[in-house]
Amino acid sequence: MPAPDAYRALPRDSAAWLGVATSLLAIAALLIAFRHRFDYAFELIEIPSVQVAAGLAIAGAVYLTLPRLIARATAAPAADARRLLALVVGVGLVLRLMMFAVNPVLEDDYHRYLWDGAVTAHGLDPYAVSPEDAALEDETVRSRLAADAGVIMDRINHPGLRTIYPPVAQAAFAVAHLIQPWSITAWRGVCLVADATTLALLLALLQASGRSPLWSALYWWNPVVVKELINSAHMEAILMPLVLGALLLAVRRRPVSAIGVLGLAVGTKLWPIILAPLILRPLLADARRLAIAAGLLAALCVAWAVLPLRSGLDDTSGFVAYAQRWQTNSALFPVLEGLASRALGPLALDEHLPGLLVRAAMAAIVLALALRLSIVPWDGALDLVTRAGLVVVVMLLLSPAQFPWYFVWVLPFLAFRPSMALLTLSVTMPIYYASFYFHARDTYDVFRTWVVWGVWLPVWALLLREFHAWQRTGALPTGDPHA
Predict the structure, then answer these.
(1) Torsion angle defined by CA atoms of residues 236, 237, 238 and 240, in that order, rounded to the nearest 10 degrees
(2) Phi then psi dihedrals of residue 252, to 5 deg
């Protein structure tokens, strides 16, 4: 039974809910009002990157009022909760549609998506040739596509590298190209459909966990999600429904199907493979089905690896470049890399060796955690999602590249365990966009050495406090005051 004052909680909080919704919509409207400032006609130094970072941080601060409001609303009558859920879904959808009106702000990854989509849609191998080399070919399908692409070819970042995106992601890019060639709007439409699917799967997992569907607002109203998946149109939109779909199938005791969907997630981005031990855990007592599931996952991984391996893993491979040297927006990794470099001393014959060793150590930590959490059978949806979320959180915290869109990996899990430390990234992660201010003035080292700590120090400090509270009470956060 709800607390005696529960039925008064929702009317009292209605103004607060509307205030949060109005504030988020107003900030989105400001982005639309100044959309001309993000046109490619402007030099980077002319683009208001600091103002973008500040606006997104303010939106994140407004968003941080949601956990308390949701916790209070979970005790309200069912009819009021349904009305609130309709508000959550409607406002989140409007925020996303508003992003269609603004050029991707300080992001250009989508140009690579559009190029890869065109190449794949024409039946060509997207891993074979870099965009730069494709444009130099003489009277080939690729060279004609390069000419047809126009300015998109000039805006692809790292054009000398062959693509890093696995085959399932390539299929999504190709779908957008078939809808409308070279269209950011078509690609955003694909992202929007996928993101809405993520919401539907999140609601199903919340129901299976016995949690209020209102907790989905922590994902659906998050400004980082809206910015990164629809405005910037990052391909994480395709990844997340596959990750959640695999977990939902596992909860419904369909582990072989869950592994199949997880395999599709691995074909979109490689990291979901670390969730395989958790999904396979219920099959340890059934050797036949375990062999089928493991064989299916192995077969899918081999299928995804064939084309990139056939094209070669040399210095022009995006996979090699990412594994060797990609590091962005991380405060921790450069420190560890520096310590490794000093420890190796003259033994570090290759400049990439210290970084590779740190990356290998971090990968080993994440894998060890995933295996450790798989020893004891998980019990129900909340237990599985909690364990999977912990693995993904640790992976993000240890990653050498910590782009804002990587935060999207974590956010669905926070609907089940709403850690205020991690939710605070909604405020601090937008500091990343201030890095363009320093890039434009050739002072990026200032950001990389000093400013980036503003992203991570508050989060680490709050995580330590939450860890201390967990040790004292033995309880993980649920956000529910009546739990």
Answers:
(1) 80
(2) -85, 15
